[in-house]
Write a structure and sequence with these properties.
The structure is a homodimer of 210-residue chains.
Chain A: E1 10-14, H1 21-31, E2 35-37, E3 40-42, E4 56-58, H2 61-69, E5 73-79, E6 82-87, H3 89-97, E7 100-104, H4 107-116, E8 121-126, H5 130-140, H6 145-158, E9 167-170, H7 174-188, H8 192-204
Parallel strand pairs in A: 1-7, 1-8, 2-7, 3-4, 8-9
Antiparallel strand pairs in A: 3-6, 5-6
Helix pairs in contact in A: 1-7
Chain lengths: 210, 210
């Protein structure tokens, strides 16, 4: 099929809470048109300031279970006793419209995405050290000690898979890290395996075949 | 060996003359410290304005032949009846110091580099269309008709290998293209397969092992 629009790229952000993922995702969405955020479904209770439909879609466990049965999710996982799921519908849209999709999901989810979308771009974002991460989680004050320790031990576990990601961004300066993420988005958009056929046709004219 | 400096990255720019490679290389070198240009050796006659030791090192065919025998080159190739070679010495320096290396070489050379340096980042730069390329070569006035036709037929041939590159950059706006090249450099510097061990050690502290 001759098509001069490349497929939308799936960008995945993973990394510990407290690493700055949410802010970085916002910055990326402000800076790049043609990029849309995939809002995950979750059974967890909203944190202060979180908006239903913007940060997450908050649903009951019963609802979530039904959606799983209906194959509504590309991937879903249980994290810290709550379920999180990525809806499939936007993936089809990304493919046909060429609008890129930004996901904020954990390591289990990223693994599933990679399996189904080999060209997805996986980014792992983390603060400069384990100690700084601990401090941030304590300062944030949204978790008790047990919860913080659980999060930290999950980070240790997740870090084992960090080499499976495409990019690792150490967020020790928010502006600089936002620039780096932006660079990853720009460069992914001219990867040869996404654009070579399109570029070829544009270069030689529509009639030519790669 | 515990080493907290990643190896220098080999960035390769290829693409037809008239595509803007030389200017883009200059822009990249101005913008990025920690990036140095690999000056190729050639047996061709200097064009107007070209400086020995900056654009190329101009040598005789006898000298070039001796260097080939002495294994002085990472790769060398005959292009349009002239020899071009990339000196090996800077590659060792890039590896040990972590200073990235920018090469402006043709498709044959890029293929050799890829074979020996699988993590090299290969970028193919081309103007928006074959017609525009033809116009630019005519306007430049440095080649006669036969030479221009030879260059154009080489481009047709080279374009067959374009999908083997990592990135394809269509240079229809010099500033935008310079930004894109810059993004590729920034993103390559946080590719997981280059930095995951280093990041891991920095994150958990020197003593820990990936």
């Amino acid at each position: 099929m001759i098509n001069n629009v490349r497929e939308g790229i799936i960008f995945v952000l993973s990394g510990p809470s407290g690493g700055g993922k949410t802010t970085l995702a916002q910055r990326a969405l402000e800076r790049h048109s043609n990029l849309s955020f995939s809002v995950s479904y979750t059974t967890r209770i909203p944190r202060e300031g979180e908006v239903d439909g913007k940060d997450y879609r908050f649903v009951s466990e019963t609802e979530f279970g039904r959606m799983v049965k209906d194959n509504y999710f590309v991937e879903y996982a249980k994290v810290h006793n709550n379920y999180y799921g990525t809806p499939l519908e936007q993936f089809g849209m990304a493919k046909s419209t060429g609008i890129d999709l930004l996901l904020d999901i954990d390591v289990q989810g990223a693994r599933q995405i990679r399996k189904n979308y080999s060209l997805a771009v996986l980014c792992f974002i983390l603060p400069s050290s384990f100690e700084i991460l601990r401090e941030r989680l304590v300062e944030r004050g949204s978790d008790n000690d047990a919860e913080i320790n659980r999060r930290l031990s999950k980070v240790r576990q997740e870090m084992r898979d960090v080499h499976k990601y495409d990019y690792i961004i150490v967020n020790d300066d928010l502006d600089k890290t936002a620039d780096t993420l932006s660079s990853i988005i720009v460069s992914a958009r001219c990867e040869a395996n996404r654009v070579s056929d399109i570029v070829w046709r544009k270069f030689f004219g529509e009639a030519s075949k790669p």
